[in-house]
Amino acid sequence: MEARGAKLRFLPAYSPDLNPIEMVFAKLKDSVRSAAARCADTLCRAIASALAAFTPEECARYLRHAGYAST
């Protein structure tokens, strides 16, 4: 591979602590559970409300924490 100019890189072990989607889902699930929705309509409203609570700044912090963004 190196003779062809390619480099072999090893990926780090999977860590949910460094996966931004895991961090988002944890907050989302907590919010939906605390709403205690028991039917489809209230569940949909609880999910919409939970998603609306995520600010662009918060999402950027998740990405920075996981190492996907520097600023």
TrEMBL record:
It comes from the Bacteria. Residues 3-43 form the Tc1-like transposase DDE domain. GO terms for molecular function: nucleic acid binding. Pfam families: DDE_3. This is Transposase. It comes from Rhabdonatronobacter sediminivivens.
